[in-house]
């Protein structure tokens, strides 16, 4: 029988470290279905014809390199494909890998539009393959959410040999509410290891790393990273005595590697500093992740890069 929510010990661990690994959150049958659907999306739904060849870029210090074209900005209620920077031949500008091996991520409305991936967040999955999955809504309730809303979802492929590194970052930079409330639900669909680019975390950084910046829409189009004028911590964590300075965020000695087996769920506080290295191995690292924000008592900014669909962000509680 599926565990209903988190145990008090798990909640305490999450509150202490800012992340939590939940093993065996998805059963083998669900993993098989999700990986097959990922492959179908890459082989059948993804076509280069008419595709703008949008690369997913995490951006430099000024944020000017971050992806921000209309294909990206209009993906909040769509399922779209974003390419890996290293999948292109720098001399010709053309793909140097087969299209299925060139995709960095697929997003951002899988949780609503794709019936296979939607089963993860449903209270009652439509497929028996998800029987035994750890249900999502009780986890959100355990973490104190009153009105949890799923606002975006992604398959991240971390392709063999070319999967790019992701520098230290906080999810609330990209999915900001006032006050901050984002929590990431990150599922390993394949083993995530030190050699294929697993996550690493700075334990406890959610209490001392302010959300100093935000990814926002520019008035004339595109996106940029800009200073955050709003609260930099959730209400319960306001005004820590000591804060992590931006110059210290790259300190490798502070990070703990989070190797996990396929089927594991990793919960990530929106303020927690985390990163992943390049995948230089011959094995991929496909994961599925979605993010939840608090819909009660928070404000979602109209300048955020991601804007809600007409029906609003997806409720986890009926």
TrEMBL record:
Q: Which InterPro entries match?
A: Phytyl_CoA_dOase-like
Q: Name one Pfam family in it.
A: PhyH
Cofactor(s) needed by this chain: Fe cation
Task: Name the keywords, alphabetized.
Answer: Dioxygenase, Iron, Metal-binding, Oxidoreductase
- A single MF term (Gene Ontology): dioxygenase activity
Q: What Gene3D superfamilies does the record tag this protein with? A: q2cbj1_9rhob like domain
User: Which family would the database say this protein is a member of?
Assistant: Belongs to the PhyH family.
What is the protein's given name? Phytanoyl-dioxygenase
